[in-house]
Amino acid sequence: MKTSIPQWAETDRPREKMIAKGRLALSETELIAILLSSGNREESAVDLAKRILADCKNNLVELSRLSLTQLMQYKGVGEAKAVTIAAALELGRRRRESEVLEQKKITCSKAAFEFIYSNIAEIPHEEFWIILLKNNKQIIGKSLIGVGGLTSTIADPKKIFHQILLHNAAGFILCHNHPSGNIQPSDTDIRLTNEIQAASKVLRIDLVDHIIVTCNSYYSFADEGIILHD
């Protein structure tokens, strides 16, 4: 027999627990249960949240990849609840970018990773972006250069430098994702990076880094010594 959350001890109810102890005291299951608000005839909101997370290997990144239709396959999850969960996860992704924007500068490879994460980390195909910078590494913006398939993308150097010159950028960071989860650069990635760095030196524009992004990690060409600065 299902025991509904209102029948629980007050200190065990997710909402009351957050109010009394703060958000850090709650598990991921309890946080999702708050978003769900209620369960179904057989499960409390916590039990339903636990089952959804288990199906996603207890991984929030996997959960964020579920479409609204997939979320709505769970009994007790209607359109409104599915939208609420998706919106909360999207806010989490965008927070990474906002934290970098507060600093207004890209000071290290990790900051570049956090800034571009929401655009490319969790998508199922490859995309190529550039981050545009001023002389002091202040952020001008970012621009999508090309969209590819599961294992490759199109990065046209002409389009890259067009965007750089259009925004009068003094420097830039190349960014693309590997949906496979493998952060190691391919021979094509290394060759493209070398070609673009050679062209950027002629134009006296600083190629600061090239970041390969996955859901959980990244690879920095600068950190690994592939991109060298004078």
Question: What's the gist of this structure?
Answer:
With 230 residues, the protein is of the alpha+beta class.
Structural description of this entry:
The chain has 230 residues and is an alpha+beta fold. The chain contains 9 helices and 5 strands. A 5-stranded mixed beta sheet has the order 2-1-3-4-5, sandwiched between helices. Strand 4 and strand 5 form a beta hairpin. Helix 2 crosses helix 3 and helix 6 packs antiparallel against helix 7. It starts with 13 loop residues before the first helix and ends in a 10-residue tail after the last strand.
Key features?
five-stranded mixed beta sheet; Cytidine Deaminase, domain 2; 230 residues; alpha+beta
Set out the fold topology.
Blueprint: H1 14-21, H2 28-36, H3 45-55, H4 60-64, H5 68-71, H6 79-103, H7 109-120, E1 127-133, E2 139-147, H8 157-166, E3 171-177, H9 187-202, E4 206-213, E5 218-220
Parallel strand pairs: 3-4
Antiparallel strand pairs: 1-2, 1-3, 4-5
Helix pairs in contact: 2-3, 6-7
